[in-house]
Amino acid sequence: MIRKTDEFVARTNVRGGVGTIEMHNLLNEGELGGKVKMLARIVLPAYASIGYHQHTEDWEHYYILSGTGVFTGPDEVAQDVVAGDMCMIKKGESHALSNDGEGPMEILAIILE
Amino acid sequence: MIRKTDEFVARTNVRGGVGTIEMHNLLNEGELGGKVKMLARIVLPAYASIGYHQHTEDWEHYYILSGTGVFTGPDEVAQDVVAGDMCMIKKGESHALSNDGEGPMEILAIILE
Nearest CA to CA, how far is B15 from chain A (Å)? Predict the structure, then answer.
């Protein structure tokens, strides 16, 4: 089965972040077989961000598909990221991501529990 | 932790397909918490393909990141696919994917078991 993923949910100030981001859910619960909590492509417009937040019951990896930005990991150290970077955390840890470019930044987010 | 994912394993004639594809593994077993068997970005050069094959013990979804191609699902019907298309199968089903363009096709592959 082929599904188009143009549709998205617009979310503003996510986790205390800046701007409005697009959440394109790629797979539904049944298609993930209970193994993964979420698999989504997220578009952050210029200068948008996802605020620093903790994952207590699960953990989430961000994979940078395009654009440039700043990833803040559990040690609160901010690092520049580019396409091809996999930004990982473990259960219980915190993270944030911001787009520091003038174009959109696209990422893949996977939440495991 | 941030990992670069430029490195890849080159695989030729995958599942009876054409050409040599790049397998960029995004997460290792521990980082997937035993929930997912594989999460990879795969690059298919012009006219390369992954041959028709069955998943008996797991199932795999292909998400088209860029390029154009043809996805063949479990019913053996070939369908054109473009960026943003999520190509899904269930456990026990078969699939194939070919790049029909003159540029590279990039996909994300996730194997669940």
Answer: 20
CA angle A42, B44, A108 (to 5 degrees): 15
> Which amino acid appears at position B88 of this protein?
M
Model-level pTM?
A: 0.95
Global ipTM: 0.93
The 10s digit of each residue's pLDDT in B77-99 is 999 999 999 999 999 999 999 99
Return the ∠ at Cα B44 (arms to B38 and B46), rounded to 5°. 175
- CB contact under 8 Å between A84 and B27, yes or no, is no
Neighbouring CB atoms inside 10 A of A39's CB total 24
Pick the residue from chain A with its C-alpha nearest to B8. Answer: A84
Residues of A in contact with B108 (CB under 8 A): 108
Secondary structure E strands in chain A: 2-4, 9-12, 20-25, 36-44, 49-54, 59-66, 68-72, 78-82, 85-87, 94-99, 105-112
Judged by phi (left if over 0) then psi (alpha if -120 to 50, else beta), residue B5 lies in alpha
From the list A38, A78, A83, A77, the residue with the least C-alpha distance to A61 is: A38
